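Please fill in the sequence for the structure shown.

STRUCTURE ENCODING:
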């Protein structure tokens, strides 16, 4: 009976089993060399690309459910995968493989007056739990980064991306096994039961060393409030673009438009455009007009409204998304 079939036996027992397997895998990863970890990542990238049809089929199930639930367009876009996006995920795995191995890197050293030499050396944390929401690519990103740093990962994605994340995870496991590393080095929680998150926040009986939440404010707050292990948290997005008085407007406008319009649904999309008060008048007008012409709804203060009648007044409601598409 595989782990997915054992979900009915109880989420608490399931999560304890996952934690124990991750702890054992972490011991093996701590001894793994760069070549073995990089091989796992490159093989996973190959498996990911080879599995593109299956991943897209799984993603179609998640998209259908999201549309049936009348999720916003931006949400659906974050969830959606295409052959190009899958290739980008695979390329991301290869890029991580090319990074220097942080394990055993000496980041500081000094000698005491008694000639005792002291070094600060990077070492793996152990087992990292990552709780994220609807973007299935995080499955690969988080798992790969943990692996590169010699850590085992327990990933709990959002229920909306369950099928997509599961398909991506299979490719990661294929890479691990091809490199001779334990499959439990990167585990995806195989249930959408919310109790699984609660068990992770408790620490899985000491198996988890740290938790990383990646998602909206409510998710981060819950993790910070309930976690019984250390948390690497973040606050709200701070995706601001600053237009300086000395900027070349011809160069700046494509950057401003791309920062917002390249993909509006992701957390990296620009939220606020700040224009230097000392900038020539044409800077504000040119930037605002370019955004509006690209289909972006712009909300701004009086100066921004004055340069184009299409600019709507800024409000507290829109404070988190100054330029809303």
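FILLED IN BY: designer on duty
SEQUENCE:
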């Amino acid at each position: 009976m595989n782990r997915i079939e054992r979900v009915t036996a109880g989420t608490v027992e399931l999560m304890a089993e996952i934690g124990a397997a991750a702890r054992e895998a972490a011991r093996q990863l701590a001894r793994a060399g760069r070549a073995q970890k990089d091989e796992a990542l490159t093989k996973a990238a190959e498996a990911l690309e080879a599995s593109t049809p299956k991943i897209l089929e799984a993603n179609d199930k998640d998209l259908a459910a999201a549309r049936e639930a009348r999720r916003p367009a931006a949400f659906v876009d974050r969830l959606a995968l295409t052959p190009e996006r899958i290739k980008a995920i695979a390329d991301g795995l290869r890029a991580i493989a090319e990074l220097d191995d942080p394990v055993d890197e000496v980041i500081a050293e000094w000698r005491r007056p008694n000639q005792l030499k002291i070094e600060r050396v990077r070492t793996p944390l152990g087992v990292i739990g990552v709780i994220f929401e609807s973007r299935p690519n995080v499955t690969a990103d988080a798992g790969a980064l943990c692996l590169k740093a010699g850590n085992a990962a327990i990933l709990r994605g959002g229920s909306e991306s369950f099928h997509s994340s599961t398909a991506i995870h299979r490719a990661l496991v294929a890479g691990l096994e091809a490199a001779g590393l334990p499959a439990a080095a990167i585990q995806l929680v195989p249930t959408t039961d919310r109790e699984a998150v609660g068990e992770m926040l408790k620490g899985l009986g000491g198996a988890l060393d740290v938790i990383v939440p990646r998602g909206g404010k409510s998710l981060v707050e819950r993790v910070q409030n309930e976690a019984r292990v250390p948390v690497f948290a973040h606050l709200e997005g701070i995706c601001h673009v600053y237009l300086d008085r000395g900027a070349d407007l011809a160069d700046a406008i494509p950057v401003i438009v791309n920062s917002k319009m390249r993909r509006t649904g992701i957390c990296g999309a620009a939220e606020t455009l700040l224009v230097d008060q000392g900038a020539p008048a044409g800077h504000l007008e040119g930037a605002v007009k370019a955004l509006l012409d690209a289909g972006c709804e712009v909300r701004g203060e009086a100066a921004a409204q004055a340069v184009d009648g299409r600019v709507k007044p800024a409000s507290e409601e829109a404070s988190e998304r100054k330029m809303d598409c």
